[in-house]
Amino acid sequence: MLKVAFIVNHFPLLSETFILNQITGLLERGHQVDIYTCTPGDLNKVHPDVEKYCLLERTYYLPEIPQNFLKRSLKAIGLLSINFTKAPRKLLRSLNGFKYGKSATSLRLFYAAIAGADKGAYDIVHCQFGTLSFWGMLFRTINAPQAKLVVSFRGYDISQFIQEHGDRIYDRTFVEADLFLPNCDFFKRRLLKLGCNEKKICVHYSGIDCDRFQYTPRYRHSHQKICIATIGRLVEKKGIEYSIRAVAKIVKSCPNLEYKIVGCGSLQTELEQLIQELELNNIVHLLGKKNRQEIIEVLQASHIFIAPSITARDGNQDAPVNVLKEAMAIGLPVISTYHGGIPELVEDCVSGFLVPERDAEAIASKLQYLIAHPEIWNIIGAAGRERVEKYFNMQNLNDELVDIYQKVSSEE
């Protein structure tokens, strides 16, 4: 049995089912998982597996570290008085500046020790995003020095974060961590470009539970509305502006449309205004946040799925999008973009269509083609389902993750 510490940004979080799938997969295979999170997630809408596996009982909170050193010191005194009896030697050791240098004198190591004060050793410390590797290095140093440090890269952490902080931001991480798991070849190439040792890199895709997404052939019945769907946060990199503009371009020639957009985010007001300006209020509907079952119901009721991802102005990019995998698993013909790791999921003209980023005209052209040729919906849908089952099946990928852990754990 492996004992694994997951370090995450938020938990629980509906939009990060890829992390939840790994946790439950490890538990089902008899391994132990503890979850360390920087911030509590949204407890109003949680995935059923959070309750099924009692995951909140396995969740611990990484204490916020004040930027001001005086405030940091005062907070540390309070934390020490509360937690000292849990692990006195570990907490005092975390303050040893002679041994740990700046990590100790800055009190950052102490805050990491507080998080795992009364926990035993771990075999694996897995940072679920590259941005968490800095916490991970501290956590391992004081809580699990024999553990292997594994770091996943998933999107923002290997795109926008690099643009904001420079190409050298992960230099120390590349030295100290034992293994890096980019979730697509596109991000592997970026890690190599940044100077990461190729021997430490293993591409590990994020998977979905194909059994939860029943494949359903798509047909168009006469006089039936054609239902189009997009699911994703209302933020720039999702490119939803361009799919809305695409629908506006074809609505006169294809008036019997309905376009449902599931998600919330900072661009909601802007997108509402765009819908109004393009006179699409009766066609395009922003449905807000939905839980997992509600999302599946939207997908099952749809005919075509669009994932118009773009590279945001701040550099943020996507890997193969999980909800795109879900749409393909259900059997929807999909339209997406030549963006990030998406071409590793969607084979153009085979399991879907790919168009250039920010090209509403190209999206409109593919939409018109699909609407005019419903006889190909099932051909594309079947190819999409086959590809997801072959490369993105959660069960296979969770088996692969255990193998990865065992291999890295056995290395000297």
UniProtKB/TrEMBL annotation:
Residues 218-386 form the Glycosyl transferase family domain. GO terms for molecular function: glycosyltransferase activity. InterPro entries: Glyco_trans_1, Glyco_trans_4-like_N. Coiled coil: none annotated. Keywords: Glycosyltransferase, Transferase. The keyword Glycosyltransferase applies. Residues 16-212 form the Glycosyltransferase subfamily 4-like N-terminal domain. Belongs to the glycosyltransferase group 1 family. Glycosyltransferase 4 subfamily. This is Colanic acid biosynthesis glycosyltransferase WcaL. The lineage of its organism: Bacteria, Bacillati, Cyanobacteriota, Cyanophyceae, Chroococcidiopsidales.
